[in-house]
Write the structure tokens for this entry.
Amino acid sequence: MRIAVLSDIHGVLPALEAVLAEPGVAGAEVIVLTGDMAAGPMPVQTLDVLVSLGERALWVSGNADRELVEAVRGKASPYPVSQWAAGRLRDDQVELLAGLPDRQVVELGRLGTTLFVHATPRSDEEMILVDSSLERWAEVLAGEDAATVVLGNTHMPFVRLADRVLVVNPGSVGMPYGRSGADWALLDGDTGAVTLRRTPLDAARVGERLVRESGFGGIEEWVADYVTNVYSDAEALRVFAKAENR
């Protein structure tokens, strides 16, 4: 079995469409969506495309998905685009997000029991990083018996071992840190291979489409922050490391 992993799409429909057109994704038996799908400039359209994948898709809830549902139900989001996106969702989409599981488990050949979560197995928003200590990884993975753990949340791709557990972060489809493009991963259970992939994007054209089709009042500023600009991975690592008290 081959699994394509798409994480942190954040409502950037042009990036999602480009990734879904990749042969590695189109040919995968399963597409796992590891959270934060719709909180962004094209939430309704993004969810409709993901739903159209049908039974090929395995969904995992992310903190931004949970927060969209909370915003619909009256808890204001601190992020203007998320508050706006929550107001655009149809009732069936809110119900979909509210019912998503916090994990998926797949027996994946040579990769063994593979656990898919958004941030960590115990939280949808906890920070864990490529350079986190083995002691920190042991704490986060305590009680889990998976041979492979796949997670997102931090928008930076990596593959590392943590005391014999293979950990994979596919990066972000819609809001990557470090380099432009749409990041995703391909897992091959037959060979045991894990491949980090990047789909090139024309940032200017993506931004133009979002400005034209989104409807979000702050879309031009959002595009300038997250599409035509890419935040430094070094800066993100320094900021996120503070969540680990480093």
In short: Residues 12 and 188 are 26 Å apart (CA to CA). The mean pLDDT is 97.
